[in-house]
Amino acid sequence: MFEGRVKKINDREDKKDGKFVLYCMEVSQREDFNHSLEFAIEKANSLSKPVIVAFFITDKYRYSNQRYYRFMLEGILKTKEKVEKRGIKFIIRKQSFIEGCLDIGKNSACIVLDRNYLKTQRNWRIEVAKKSDVAVYEVESDVLVPIETIATQQIPYAYIYRKKIYEILENFLKPLDKIEPKINSLDLDIEGLQLDNLEEILNMLNIDKTVSTVEKYFVGGSDEAEKRLKIFIERKLPKYREFRSDPTKDYTSNLSPYLHFGQISPLKIALEVLRFYDREDENVKSFFDELIIWRELARNFCWYNPFYNQYEGIPDWAKKTLQEHKRDYREYEYNLEDFEQAKTHDPYWNAAQKELLKTGKIHNYMRMYWCKKIIEWTSEPKNAFDIACYLNDKYGLDGRDPNGYLGISWCFGNFDRPMQERKIFGKIRYMSDKGLERKFSIADYVKKYL
Ligand SMILES: Cc1cc2nc3c(=O)[nH]c(=O)nc-3n(C[C@H](O)[C@H](O)[C@H](O)COP(=O)(O)OP(=O)(O)OC[C@H]3O[C@@H](n4cnc5c(N)ncnc54)[C@H](O)[C@@H]3O)c2cc1C
């Protein structure tokens, strides 16, 4: 049931006189198909203890803004209700992750954490493991196949990851049974926020309110994610392969914000798709290539490459060729402000940036174009990398995610092969406005967002 997903990350033991098992929810913000939650319940049952769930919010996080806090809290409040229906206390606290885990955890028998692949959050876990007196377990529920089961180093190309995953995927395509907690924890007296109202919680936080909220386009929560999944399977998946790259059509799932906050499990998505379609169906293959191969490759990348969100993380050949062409003549050059305000000469690029500003997401094809043009119009490639990360992380509901760092790194040549040499880009793959015009009714896309 938890094959390859659970790792004990310190050398302490489960404490016999601990009052409960504590699960600190962070990556998998859901009640359903959550291996960490089920593991915590199983552990609590085996120790004859109750289990509790805690969720910590802080306004100290670098990217804290109301756009994604609203989306996240919409989801968390619904998850709280669902967890409590199972007789499990759910505490929300305004506290840092480390302080919260240690503070509640000091009375626990053991602590269960979700695995997170990013540097800051990994360091939080190291601190909790180091400072806690009880055993700390890390559970990986964000992927179909645990990344260390596939490889113990960075995998440079998707085709290698694809081959490795497909050899063993079958073993992991299994639903996750729910375990009933033996002891109800709802009456345990542990301090948490007394607020169940989204607006009150948002008002309590000192977060960036200059970034607009996007509830017109995305409302957070597992139920919303499931509605989108249903629509995707019924209406879009049958044409996914043909139309997924066309930014003027709506044929992708739009599940990335929900996946980013763990409001839906990728395993559940895959199993739902397979309830209706064969694995050999060309649309399923194409969709699984994104949902499983590229998404899990991104997690492998962030886990094994410490420079995943920096220019330094791209391959040497890509750095060399970009450096060689650094002084090439650029017809247009822009700074962060121009990019952020969508003030370039290019209506296609501006429309992509406006899609990001307005909705919190960009269509995948336009996201590639968007990042490639930032490289073209910035004199220093390292600055281009930082600008792309900054904008994607600040405005993307699905930003701050391994997928984003892989996507940006890909635009700089990572996971790709050298092409014929040209101005500015050197041997890095290039994209042009003419290409957009040739392939799509791109004027329709511009109309939608300008
Ligand atoms: C420069 C750039 C920046 C990107 N930033 C992000 C980001 O911040 N967050 C993010 O989730 N994705 C990012 N991507 C990847 C991709 O654009 C989005 O995942 C996709 O557009 C999400 O839309 P969807 O859910 O409708 O995708 P669908 O086509 O329905 O795919 C289903 C799921 O598969 C995963 N997926 C799809 N494409 C990719 C991909 N190329 N790489 C990795 N996983 C993928 C996503 O989780 C997605 O939700 C970026 C790509 C590029 C080129």
TrEMBL record:
Keywords annotated in UniProt: DNA damage, DNA repair, DNA-binding, FAD, Flavoprotein, Lyase
GO annotation (BP), single: photoreactive repair
Pfam families xrefs: DNA_photolyase
Top-level taxon: Bacteria
MF terms in GO: deoxyribodipyrimidine photo-lyase activity; DNA binding
The name this protein goes by in its record: Deoxyribodipyrimidine photo-lyase
EC class (word): lyase
This enzyme's EC code(s): 4.1.99.3
DNA-binding found in the keyword field: yes
Known cofactor(s): FAD; (6R)-5,10-methylene-5,6,7,8-tetrahydrofolate
Family classification: Belongs to the DNA photolyase class-2 family.
Ranges where the Photolyase/cryptochrome alpha/beta domain occurs: 19-147
